[in-house]
Amino acid sequence: MRNKTIDFSVEDGAIYLKSALNEKDLKKDTSLENVVDKFILGDTYEALKKLPKKSVDLLICDPPYNLNKKFGKNAFLAISSEEYIKYTRKWLSLCMPLLKDNASIYICCDWKCSNEIFSVLKEFAIIQNRITWQREKGRGAKANWKNGMEDIWFASTTEDYYFNLSAVKQRRRVLAPYKDNGKPKDWTQTPDGKYRDTCPSNFWDDISVPYWSMSENTAHPTQKPEKLIAKLILASSKEGDVVLDPFGGSGTTAVTANKLNRRFISIEQNPQYVAWSIKRLDTAKLDKTIQGYEDGVFWERNTQLNLKRTKK
Ligand SMILES: C[S@@+](CC[C@H](N)C(=O)[O-])C[C@H]1O[C@@H](n2cnc3c(N)ncnc32)[C@H](O)[C@@H]1O
Asked: Probe ligand 1: pick from 91, 247, 250, max atoms within 8 Å of CB?
């Protein structure tokens, strides 16, 4: 199988960067129409100050975790818990005025910075839940348990937030197919097995990290899967809504939002990642598939997409 990883230099990506907006060119009174569905290249702390207030329906944040991590030429260096709290408060306080009154917020983190993120998030919003994503892949530790999970904090600006449960149903294989009067109770027989569409819990074990044979894969060191972001977007926004990602990386939030007919604002400081994001968006315009999401439901991890299926 061909390696599909998107990985090219800034020079080779110059053609893509032509359609990016430079944060330095944004004005204080930039209108939503001028920034939406474009990638903003620059420092998120500066760009956020210039975005229109009360225009965002959904905020999805995947900030650098409190670890030493290289993001191309830039690096995030681990800081104390107190400093990480200040760092988080600084960017979150810039995001908050941009949100509409019924907006939802998701912030990704690992076990180490989860407490700090939680403590800052609750200063600004109403915490609704904590999702745990079982990552499957993780680096082995010499004298510790391998980290195989991440947290995603879910919050809202008010209690009047939008949540579409039926858009994020999970199709699971039925282990004990109960029948009522000889008929399947809440499950469907398909050529490849018996399935039930279930309400998703806050434990997500159906999503793998992007890997080399997936067309969404890039060389970004901490890329999130489109399937994971699709769940957040489908549950917490409507078509046409505006989704903001202040740490855009390889463009996963933006590309997934576009595939699901939402609008996006994406900010990233590394031009190489922005070029990859724009390349991904170009591809998404021709191919809207999201690996693991088909027929309006989320399938179990690594389900073969070419299986013959019948609809309910
Ligand atoms: C954890 S990664 C996000 C990955 C992204 N969710 C994806 O799927 O590719 C964090 C990103 O934030 C970017 N970043 C960190 N500080 C930034 C800043 N001050 N302004 C803009 N981008 C920043 C990094 O370059 C990195 O790509």
From this structure: 247
Low-confidence ranges of the chain (pLDDT < 70): 138, 304-312
* C-alpha of residue 64 to centroid of ligand 1, in Å: 6
Q: How far is CA 41 from CA 58, 107, 275, in A?
A: 20, 21, 10
Q: pLDDT > 90: what percent of the chain?
A: 80
CA of 59 to the centre of ligand 1 (A): 14
Compute, in angstroms, the gap from residue 136 CA to the centroid of ligand 1: 22
Domains in the chain with CATH codes? 14-299 (3.40.50.150)
pLDDT in tens, 249-289: 999 999 999 999 999 999 999 999 999 999 999 999 999 99
* DSSP summary character for residue 140: -
Tokens of 226: 């489109």
Neighbouring residues of 89: CB distance < 8 A, sequence distance ≥ 6: 120, 123
* Ligand 1 pocket, residue 43 CB under 6 Å: yes
**Structure pTM?**
0.95
Question: Residues 300, 277, 164, CA angle at the centre, nearest 5°?
Answer: 45
Each residue's pLDDT tens digit, 100-121: 999 999 999 999 999 999 999 9
Question: Look-up: residue for tokens 């969404």?
Answer: 216
245: CA distance to ligand 1 center in Å? 9
Kindly list the distances between the CA atom of residue 160 and the CA atoms of 102, 201, 204, 238, in Å, as whole numbers in the listed order.
6, 21, 25, 15
DSSP per residue, 56-79: EEEEEE-PPPSS-EEETTEEE---
Whose C-alpha lies nearest to ligand 1, atom 5? 249
Cβ-contact 238, 263 below 8 angstroms: no
Using DSSP, state whether 35 is helix, strand or coil: helix
